[in-house]
Amino acid sequence: MTGPDAPAALRATGLGFRYRKRGGRALRDCEFTVPNGRITALVGRNGAGKSTLLHLAGGLLRADSGELRVLDTAPGTAEARARVALLTQDKPLYPRFTVADTLLMGEKLNSSWDRAVAERTVREGDIPLHVRVGELSPGQRTRVALALALGKRPELLLLDEPMADLDPVARGEIMASLMAEAAERGTNIVLSSHVLPEIEQTCDWVLLLRDGRIELSEDAEALRESHAVLTGHTDQADALAGRHTVVRRRAAGRQMTALVRQHGPLRGDWHVERPRLEDILIGYLEAGAPGRLAPAERTEAAA
Ligand SMILES: Nc1ncnc2c1ncn2[C@@H]1O[C@H](COP(=O)(O)OP(=O)(O)OP(=O)(O)O)[C@@H](O)[C@H]1O
User: Which parts of the sequence belong to the ABC transporter domain (predicted)?
Assistant: First the structure.
C-alpha cells in the first residue's frame, strides 16, 4: 500500500528545526515519507542535519515548524518511546554499571524486553558481563548500547553513525545482526552513515539531506534504474541538460562524463553505464543541487 494513508516509518511535512543556542537552522521545509519495512540510509555531508533529524525522530528534540511522525505517532510520547529505539553517537551509558547491570536496567525499563537478544549481542563481542561499562573500549561500549537498543525489540531502530568506532570484523557482525533482525521481524531501520559501500549492500531506501533540506527520499533500486553515467563529446551537453537532470558532470578536453537522472530515452552518441548506488550518492553529495555544476567543474570554469 502506498499513498498518504499507507503506514510509514517516518513522515515529515514542512519539518523545520533551529538550535536556540547558536541559532543555526539545522532543518528546513523537510517533506518526505519512509514507508514501513525499509532499511533506510540517511546520507549527507557533515552538518547536513542527519543527527538532528534522528534526535527529532527519537523524541530528544521537538520540531519548531511542521511535523514529524514516527510509526504514524508523535515522537517522544509513551507509545513512541515503547516502539522506537535511538542509538546516538554519544551512547549514554552509566560507566559505573557493569554490563549485566546495564542489561538489567534495560529489562526493568522495557516491557517488551528480549534478554536473549541483548545477551547474544554482547556475547558475540566477547564482552564479559561483570565488567564495568567505564572500563570498556569505545567499540565495546557501542556493542552494549546496541544490545540495549535491540533488547527493546523496537519496531523502528534509529542509528546515528553507530559503528564508527567498531573494528571491521565487529562492524560486519553487527550489520549482519541488524539485517537478520530486519528480515525476521520486519524492523524498520534508519541508519545514518558515511560508509557508502555498506549502504549499497544493506539499504533499500535513501534519504539524502543537503544543508538541512531533503534532496532524495527514494527507493534504492528506483534510484539505480533512473540514473545513468554517460560519456561522450561535450557538444552534446546542452541537449542533455535540456531533457534530463544532470546531477554532476566533469569535462576533460572535449570529452565529458555526466551522472544524469533520465527523463525518457537518451538521444545522442553516449556511452552509457548503469551506476552503483554508491556512485549515485557520491554524485549527489559532491554536486550542488541537481543541474548546477559540480564543485570541481566550477573551479575549472573560474580558472
Ligand atoms: N547542539 C547544537 N547547537 C547548535 N547548533 C547545532 C547543534 N548541533 C548541531 N548543530 C548545527 O546543526 C546543523 C546540523 O547538524 P547535525 O549534527 O544534525 O548534522 P549531521 O549531518 O549529523 O553532521 P555529521 O555528519 O557531522 O554528524 C549544523 O549546522 C550544526 O552546526
Answer: 10-236
> What would the DSSP string read from start to end of 2-49?
-STTS-EEEEEEEEEEE-TTT--EEEEEEEEEEETT-EEEEE-STTSS
Ligand 1 pocket member 50 (CB < 6 A): yes
- 188 close to 159: Cβ distance less than 8 angstroms: no
Which residues share a beta bridge with 148? none
Whole-angstrom distance, CA of residue 105 vs CA of residue 142: 17
Distance 42 CA to ligand 1 centre (A): 14
The length of the chain is 303
pLDDT tens, 34-74? 999 999 999 999 999 999 999 999 999 999 999 999 999 99
* Cβ contact 296:258 at 8 Å: no
Task: Report pLDDT digits (tens) over 160-198.
Answer: 987 877 888 888 888 888 888 888 888 999 999 888 888
**d(C-alpha 288, C-alpha 5), whole Å:** 33
Q: Are 49 and 216 in contact (CB under 8 A)?
A: no
Q: Is the CB of 51 under 6 A from ligand 1?
A: yes
ipTM over the 0.95 cut-off:
yes
Mutate to test the pocket of ligand 1, among 25, 43, 45, 51 (most ligand atoms within 8 A of CB): 51
CA 250/CA 54 separation, integer angstroms = 34
Among all chains, which residue has been given the C-alpha cell 570541481?
A: 296
